[in-house]
Amino acid sequence: MNNKTVGVIGAGTIGSGVAQDLAQNGIKTIVVDVSQAALDTARNKIRQNIRLYKLYNKTKPIGNADEIMELLTFTTDYKELEEASFVIENITENWEAKKEVYKRIDEICPENTMFAVNSSCISITRVGSVTKRPSQILGMHFMNPVPIKPVVEVIRGFHTSAETIKAAEELLKHMQKEAIIINDMPGFVSNRLMTFMINEAAFLVQEQVAAVEDIDRLIKTSYGHKMGPLETADLIGVDTILYSMEVLYESFNDSKFRPCPLLKKMVDAGQLGRKSGKGFYTYSKELIY
Which Gene3D superfamilies does UniProt cross-reference here (predicted)? Predict the structure, then answer.
């Protein structure tokens, strides 16, 4: 595989999952975050999740935890991305924050390095426009929990080259994942559908049409979903859902994407889902998977 070193920007839930998945498939990985505390948390979480992965995925053997952890470098120094041939960015769904990251790594990384935007809604074409390499920018929308999801939504921006798509497919194949290629449009496919359902479920709660548990049970039993929309919101993060809806609302100027006020209230109250211990449900402890 040509991608000998991959950079991962953002050590949150998704970024940690991407880094784990890369390392347990034998890929040297550099994890960058502005917070040393976030990096320390990610290191501990990844080690714990490797053990859990072995318990739940006996059909896909991986190396021991120490060997996998040796492939991971955790740093607050963006300059360490100079050796990366591929960078996967996973920071919050905020355009101003993402824009600054891409301007920064565009100056640091070699001219042949490719950038993958792990976004739920932000335009890949827009990201490419702030760099000197728009043909080497594409979207890679990983689903949570990353190590056990078999597919990745790969988004082709307006200028994304065939070579960049091919490199992404090869990298994902090495990670034992299938790439599903789609074209750039805010929300893409999975999040445009999923966040819309979650937002509407939040309106149902706000309007007291049904209890949280009943809404989720109806969707799971009626449609065969493994998780209900409100359980999914807690897993992803209520704040992430809100930011995604705000991007869709701004992008399409369509009232159907108006974020539910309840989501805003929950984010203001710090009720973000599993990562905060309380969202639509209350959690006795943080759940890894």
Answer: N-(1-d-carboxylethyl)-l-norvaline Dehydrogenase, domain 2, NAD(P)-binding Rossmann-like Domain
